[in-house]
From TrEMBL:
Coiled coil: none annotated. Its EC number is 3.2.1.4. Keywords: Carbohydrate metabolism, Cellulose degradation, Glycosidase, Hydrolase, Polysaccharide degradation. Residues 6-131 form the Glycoside hydrolase family domain. Belongs to the glycosyl hydrolase 9 (cellulase E) family. One of its GO terms (biological process) is cellulose catabolic process. Gene3D superfamilies: 1.50.10.10. It is an enzyme of class 3 (hydrolase). This is Endoglucanase. It comes from Noccaea caerulescens (Alpine penny-cress).
Length: 143
């Protein structure tokens, strides 16, 4: 989306990638499909943003999600007790995007497998920027 904004600012209609021309519209639509995928239009019909929609990860690899609020102070090692449980998160960290599926669309909602269920600052910052860019368009909203 950022690149399409740069193209707009330069009054460019698009860009060439090898012999193929990609318009600004095509770039934006591709970005929209990626956001739609993250929000649930994927083979699992599952949102990878915690708390969004009916199906989302419930075993997030995050101390704030997995350790009950009643627990006041823990060492790092004491946190393993909750990380390794199969129970759903006692706390929903609404809005956190998890790492998501692998390149074959395989996903496991298992807290101990951070490759699928860990939220990250860079990933969530990119999601926020993309959502802002898409909702700022006058041509329509998401999904």
């Amino acid at each position: 989306l950022l690149y399409s904004d740069y193209l707009d600012a330069a009054n460019a209609l698009g860009w060439y990638c090898g012999p193929d021309f990609h318009s600004v519209h095509v770039l934006r639509e591709f970005a929209r499909t990626q956001i739609d995928y993250i929000l649930g239009m994927n083979p699992h019909n599952m949102s990878y943003v915690v708390g969004y929609g009916d199906r989302y990860p419930k075993h997030v690899h995050h101390r704030g999600a997995s350790i009950p609020k009643t627990v006041k102070k823990l060492s790092c090692k004491q946190g393993w007790k909750w990380r390794d449980t199969e129970r759903q998160d006692p706390n929903t960290i609404v809005g956190a995007m998890v790492a998501g599926p692998n390149e074959n669309d395989f996903f496991q909602d298992i807290r101990s497998n951070y490759n699928f269920t860990e939220p990250s600052l860079p990933g969530n910052a990119g999601l926020a920027a993309a959502l802002i860019a898409l909702t700022g368009e006058s041509r329509g909203g998401l999904m």
